[in-house]
Amino acid sequence: MYDEFVSVYIILRRDGVHEYWYFWKFVERPVLSLLAIGWWSHIADVWGRRPVMLISMTGTTLSYLVFVLLQQVGLLQREDGACVGIVQALDCLFGGSIAFNGLLHTCIGDCTSPGSRFKLFSALKGLSIFFYVGGTELVMLLLDIASQKYLDLSMVISSFVAVLNIVLIIWLLPETLRNPDYNLPVFKAVISPVMVSLQRPWLALALFVYALTPSFEIVKIWFGIICSEGPFFVQWYLIFPLLASAFALLLLYPAIAILYQRKARPLRSVLKFTRHLAYTCLSIDVFSTVTVLCIAASNRIAHLVFAALSPFTVAIAPAIYSFVPAHSAVLFGSFSVIEALGGMFSNMFIQRFWSWGNTDIAQYRLLYGALAICLILTGLLLFVDSTGGSVDEEDSSTVLSTHDDEESLTVHS
C-alpha cells in the first residue's frame, strides 16, 4: 500500500519532476534493497525473524511520516524528486518491503517441510495480488473524494495498516529459528546474498528471467482492448486477469497440491511434481502468447479465449521459491531482491518500447515475441537446475503424508 501511495503521487506530478528523478524512483528501491537486504536478513538469521519484521514495518511507517511532513512544510512541491529519493532510501535503510517479503517466505519455510511450501507460497502470492488490487482501488477512491488531502488520508490508512501488521506479527507469528552464535562481519553479511545465490545459480537466474515478464501484463490488457470493441471487452480485460490469477493462486494450485499429497509420497516425488507443474504453466503461457501473437489481432473472440489462459499460469514464482533448499533468511531475501530487480528491468523495458495508447500492432507483436522468449528461457533454466539436483530432491528417504492437511516425516535409515 505504501508503494501504491508514493507511486501514484509521483505519476500524478510527473510534469513537475525531472525525468532523472522519475526514472530513479523505479530503480532506487531494488538497488538499495540489494545493498541492505544481506545485513537485515543476516540479523534475522541470528536474532530471529520477528524483530526484523517489526523493524521493517516501523521503518516503512517512519518514512511515510517524513514524506507527509515534507509535503506539509512545502518542501515536497519544490524538490519532488530529491525528497522522494530520500524517503525511499529511509525505507530501504530499515529493510523495506522487499526484505519483508523475503522474511515472510522465510517464516513459511521455517514452519513447514519442503514438500508443503508450494501451496503456502502460492497463497501468499495470491494474497499479495488481492491486496494490491485493493490498494489500487483505495488510492483511486482517495483521489476522487479528496484530491487535496490525498497525502493526509493515505497517511492515516497507511499508519492503521502498519499498526495492524505489527499486532499480527506479535500476536500470531511464532518465532521460528535463531542462531546467536552465527555472526558474520558487516561486509560479509552485506555480500552474503551474492554468495548464497551461487548455491543455486540456475534457479536464481530462472527467477530473474521470469520476473522480467509481469510488466507485460499491462501490454496484454491494452492489446486486448484495442483488438476488441464494446465496453464488455474493456471491462473484461481490465478485471478478469487479476481475478483469475488471484483465484488460481489462492484456491486452484493449493487444492492441486493438497490432492496430490493425500497419499504418503517421497519428498523427491513431491518436488518433481511441483517442477512439472511449473513446466506446465510455462508451456500454457507460451502457447497462449504465441497464439495471440499470430491470430488475435484479426479475431477478437480468439483473442478473448486464448488470452484467458495466461492469467491462470501463475504458479511459476511460488514453485521456484519452493525449491530454495535452506532455512535461511539470507537465501529467501536474495531471491526476493532478485525478483524485484527483474521487475525493475521489466518496467524499464516496457517504458522504453511501449507507451499508453499505442495502437501499432507490429510493436505489440515484437513485445509478445520478447515475452515468449523470456518464458521459454525460464523453462530451460529450470530444466538445467533440475539436472544438478539439490539436497532436498536427492533425499528420497523422506516420506510425506498430508492426510487431513497435516504432515508427518518418516526417515528410513
Automatic annotation (TrEMBL):
<protein>
    <submittedName>
        <fullName>Uncharacterized protein</fullName>
    </submittedName>
</protein>
<keyword id="KW-1133">Transmembrane helix</keyword>
<feature type="transmembrane region" description="Helical">
    <location>
        <begin position="150"/>
        <end position="173"/>
    </location>
</feature>
<dbReference type="GO" id="GO:0022857">
    <property type="term" value="F:transmembrane transporter activity"/>
</dbReference>
<feature type="transmembrane region" description="Helical">
    <location>
        <begin position="366"/>
        <end position="384"/>
    </location>
</feature>
<feature type="transmembrane region" description="Helical">
    <location>
        <begin position="202"/>
        <end position="223"/>
    </location>
</feature>
<feature type="transmembrane region" description="Helical">
    <location>
        <begin position="304"/>
        <end position="324"/>
    </location>
</feature>
<dbReference type="GO" id="GO:0016020">
    <property type="term" value="C:membrane"/>
</dbReference>
<feature type="transmembrane region" description="Helical">
    <location>
        <begin position="330"/>
        <end position="354"/>
    </location>
</feature>
<feature type="transmembrane region" description="Helical">
    <location>
        <begin position="20"/>
        <end position="40"/>
    </location>
</feature>
<feature type="transmembrane region" description="Helical">
    <location>
        <begin position="123"/>
        <end position="143"/>
    </location>
</feature>
<feature type="transmembrane region" description="Helical">
    <location>
        <begin position="276"/>
        <end position="297"/>
    </location>
</feature>
<dbReference type="InterPro" id="IPR036259">
    <property type="entry name" value="MFS_trans_sf"/>
</dbReference>
<keyword id="KW-0472">Membrane</keyword>
<keyword id="KW-0812">Transmembrane</keyword>
<feature type="transmembrane region" description="Helical">
    <location>
        <begin position="52"/>
        <end position="70"/>
    </location>
</feature>
<feature type="transmembrane region" description="Helical">
    <location>
        <begin position="235"/>
        <end position="256"/>
    </location>
</feature>
